[in-house]
């Protein structure tokens, strides 16, 4: 029952922040479930199958209810400190964590001193200099500063399938970001004078001082490795402390393409190697100086405490990352069971440790590292249990080469099984997979796990009392890394592996996960023939016609709209960042969104005009997204596989239940000359048959008053239910007469939060208000989706689905 409760707790926590659930109702249902167990035990035999099924189901629900209520209570407390408005300001901070170097800046997490004494953390961005060891604004660990700069709240691109920065900052317990312009160091006397004596006292306690010491040690190793004559400084540091500041982009890219990026995360082997090293030294000392100690205390009881202590110290040393925390909690639970002389079951140990981790930090559930870490452990347990049974079947006098052959078989077999098992998670979280991962992991895991990481840990340990010897070990380890990377470079040259984009929607990923789960179950539990049914369901799902869907994507200050129905798809604009090389809307938003929709190609792409905020993203992804036909008001160079046409008044696309028509421009000669780009935007009218309440949609591009006047003359009887405002709601579009004539049921402004143009403008908002036309903005609601279901159109705003996106 405890196992079922813990599984329920994990499932309930996984729904943290989901709107539409009431935490108080969950508590009431949990109490009713508990009462139901007591009552049902009176009417059903405790050993009967009916009671077991009922009690298991109720305990699972009880755990889910309590887990959900607890997670949402913690979420409510953390969200109350979130910053909502940007401003230029001055703040007092205490530097308690090691900074991280990125390509363009230094990221520094700090504790913010505030009058309310709330536990606030900001993520600072400081300008980066050419060297890793110096910066005009670099902040020193354990010091206080007064900072001046720009405070910016978290605001993500709220689009399905896109990296959620607000969720990531929430999980990291960071309330806002701050771009530093000026820093002034403050001493303790100044901090006391400002009224923060209690903060000084708190930071001088044992636990804060221990954490500060570990951060300083991480910094010391960064500086030491940076100054050593090593070829692979970044890798050695990342494998030792998880600090990726010295890693170059080429190495990161290669590890991603080879599917071995997970080896850069600090996980169980790193932690256990250090603990085993210390315990081995303790064991040798006891044997030499106090062997009789084993007569009084069993050996395992003596080593439990130093082993757990070493695991804890290393977890602190790497910043309590989730994989390391998983190892620590599993060590504590296993040690407790060992002391209590309870039998240790691997699956129960895994579930209990996950439950405890979520009890201490329920926000871990929001991290992909949590699911990948525990998912990989579960899969490895299942794989190695089967292979261990095969090894146990060998006789004791089996030849060594037979055992070696079996070990190699285990290593090789495990790699492709892990690849298959983790495929759904990779598709869900990253939407990409490295097809060469089984081969590269076959080479990298033994090399890094058995040679490089142990030597790294050994060098770090030796460094505390013999820095010269540690430097020699680091250099030898650097040579070992050179051999591995040389082999990977040969494979790279021969195969040139690239990441494969995965375009599975969540339903397909769920079905695939069920199939893989059935595949890995022991024989006899579920017929393997069910796999065939699952694969058939996946195929049917991929060929099932899609209902009508129109999504106005949140692409910041820009516009991009997806329209699909049946097996047809059209995208209107792609949005675009002002510098697609610095941050690509196409690669970071458009492609992930289409992948989440299960689309690897588009039938038609209409670029309403060629302004950067409407078309810039297309040019960054034109080689990665298959497009059959492209329409634009100006000429666009397209790949050979794409057909180009000018969009002009009168063009019509007829789908099963949807008709799409181009209403403007009508002066094709002026359009081809590029005259008045905004006014010559492609204006589209979309109408769906037999749908309520939103049946017709008018997409205005960046068209203004002139085009609106032409539309009023040419299409006076046009029915408009939803109007996507021209030019993002500029005051030079959406005139009063235009809005009054068509009287849409809903207006949508595709605009960025805090954009410098002030879109949608106050004038346009005033016109809409005067005509009682409601308006939704992607800046406030995220992506806005219209989806047909049973003859009605549902309106779904992405930010309304999660509490941290809508508070």
What is this entry, summarized?
This protein is of the alpha/beta class. The protein folds into 5 domains: 2-79, no CATH class; 87-204, Beta Barrel (OB fold (Dihydrolipoamide Acetyltransferase, E2P)), CATH 2.40.50; 233-501, no CATH class; 506-542, no CATH class; 545-805, Ribonuclease Z/Hydroxyacylglutathione hydrolase-like (Metallo-beta-lactamase, Chain A), CATH 3.60.15.
Number of discrete helical segments: 28
How would you sum up the major sheet? 8 strands, mixed
Biggest sheet, spatial arrangement of strands: 14-13-12-11-10-9-22-23
Measured as a percent range, the helix fraction is: 40-55%
Care to describe what's here?
One of its GO terms (cellular component) is plasma membrane. It is a multi-pass membrane protein. Keywords: Cell membrane, Membrane, Transmembrane, Transmembrane helix. It is found in: Cell membrane. This is DNA internalization-related competence protein ComEC/Rec2. Helices cover about 50% and strands about 15% of the residues. The chain has 28 helices and 23 strands. The chain has five domains: about 1-80, no CATH class; about 85-205, OB fold (Dihydrolipoamide Acetyltransferase, E2P) (Beta Barrel); about 235-500, no CATH class; about 505-540, no CATH class; about 545-805, 4-Layer Sandwich (Metallo-beta-lactamase, Chain A). The relative contact order is 0.07. An eight-stranded mixed beta sheet has the order 14-13-12-11-10-9-22-23, with no helix packed on it. A seven-stranded mixed beta sheet has the order 15-16-17-18-19-20-21. Strand 22 and strand 23 form a beta hairpin. By secondary structure, it is α/β, with parallel strands linked by helices.
